[in-house]
C-alpha cells in the first residue's frame, strides 16, 4: 500500500486483526504512509483546503491504527516524504490506483482497478512507482 493516510481502510474495525491473521498465514504486508512531518502533508492540506495540519493529523491517526502491527512478523510499516500523484493498493496481481486530483480529497477522485496481464505494462508501471517510493522510505518508529 502506498498512500498518505488511507483512513478509509485503517479505520475499519477489523483491519488490524485481518492483517495480523494474513501475516500469520505467511502473507508479506507492506504499509507505506506519508510522513506526518513532511512537506507533502502540509501541501496537501492547503491544496484540499482542509485547514493547516489536517493531513498530518490524518496520517498520525492512521499510524495509531497500525501501531499494534509493527512487531508482527511479515508486516512492515514505512513513512515516505514523496509527492504522491496517486495512492496504490496492491494485492498480488491486482491493484487499485486512486488518482489524486488537485483540490479534491482522494475519496472524490477516480480509482482504477488494474490486473497484471501478459500484454501491456500499466500494472508494472504503478508497481515500479510503489517500489521506488518504498526503497526511499524510512521504517516507522513509534
Which short descriptors sum up this protein?
142 residues, alpha+beta, 3-stranded mixed β-sheet, 5 helices
Description:
With 142 residues, the protein is α+β, with helices and mostly antiparallel strands. The protein has five helices and six strands, in the order H-H-E-H-H-E-E-E-E-H-E. Helix 3 (39-47) crosses helix 4. The two termini are 19 Å apart.
Short structural summary:
By secondary structure, the chain is an alpha+beta fold. The protein contains five helices and six strands, in the order ααβααββββαβ. It has helices at residues 7-10, 15-24, 39-47, 54-66, 122-136, and strands at residues 29-34, 75-80, 86-91, 94-99, 111-115, 138-139.
Q: What is the strand arrangement across the widest sheet?
A: 1-2-6
> What letter string, H or E per element, gives the SSE order?
HHEHHEEEEHE
Radius of gyration from the alpha-carbon trace, in angstroms = 15 Å
What's the β-strand tally?
A: 6
Report how far apart the termini are.
Answer: 19 Å
- Morphology: globular
List low-confidence stretches.
Answer: none
Helices and strands, with pairings:
Layout: H1 7-10, H2 15-24, E1 29-34, H3 39-47, H4 54-66, E2 75-80, E3 86-91, E4 94-99, E5 111-115, H5 122-136, E6 138-139
Parallel strand pairs: 1-2
Antiparallel strand pairs: 2-6, 3-4, 4-5
